[in-house]
Design brief:
single chain, alpha+beta, Pnp Oxidase, Chain A, 9-stranded antiparallel sheet, 5 helices, about 25% helix, globular, Pyridoxine/pyridoxamine 5'-phosphate oxidase, FMN binding, FMN, Pyridox_Oxase, Pyridox_Oxase_CS
Length: about 210
């Protein structure tokens, strides 16, 4: 089959202005709850896009770990490619692809580092294996073989087998302060429904506009 022949129509339902919540965080939480209830694979997975010093965009998938009116939160190695990008350009975009529900959410904003206390609270809540992996992996660096990574992990596992695992200084989180959120619902004949919330000012006030598909 040719790639140009691969398509499907979207028929699960539309999205109307009267059904939208005034606060985009409330609207997002509603859709996220519905994605979880629908048992989607990795409903909190989101594509994170950053740009390097040459203007080259990069994307990767991470997991959303918390959300409130202050923004979207994720955690990473602070020496990773995305963290290095954010040092020079803290503009960022997030994308949630909930294909089975024929929905997408696109977020733009700026990234701010979390406090040490926030990082510590989440790090200590993680499974022990995840804590060890955060220390063992120098994220985005080049390695010659997987065995090097596995060997470091086993070394750390033995070292901290009977004690608490210290949070590494090179690990932490970011809060994305939202500038806009777009909600996309698939529609028949490619007449999709798109609504974008744009922050009016520093207060929690939002302008809602419909976008053409």
């Amino acid at each position: 089959m040719k790639l140009t022949d691969i398509r499907r129509d979207y028929t699960l339902g539309g999205l109307r202005r009267k059904n939208l919540k005034e606060n985009p965080v409330d609207q997002f939480n509603l859709w996220l709850e519905q994605a979880i209830e629908a048992q989607l694979t990795d409903p909190t997975a989101m594509t994170v896009a950053t740009v390097d010093e040459h203007g080259q965009p990069y994307q990767r998938i991470v997991l959303l770990k918390s959300l409130d009116d202050q923004g979207f939160v994720f955690y990473t190695n602070l020496g990773s490619r995305k963290a290095i990008h954010l040092q020079d350009n803290n503009k960022i975009s997030l994308h949630f692809p909930w294909h089975p529900l024929e929905r997408q959410v696109h977020v733009t904003g700026v990234a701010e580092k979390l406090t040490a206390a926030e990082n510590f609270k989440y790090f200590t809540s993680r499974p022990k294996g995840s804590q060890l992996a955060a220390i063992a992996s120098k994220q985005s660096s080049r390695i010659s073989a997987r065995g090097i990574l596995e060997g470091k992990f086993l070394e750390l596992k033995k070292k901290f087998s009977d004690g608490e695992i210290p949070m590494p200084s090179f690990w932490g989180g970011y809060r994305i302060k939202v500038e806009s959120i777009e909600f996309w619902q698939g529609g028949a004949n490619r007449l999709h429904d798109r609504f974008i919330y744009t922050r009016v000012d520093d207060a929690q006030q939002w302008e809602i506009e419909r976008l053409a598909p």
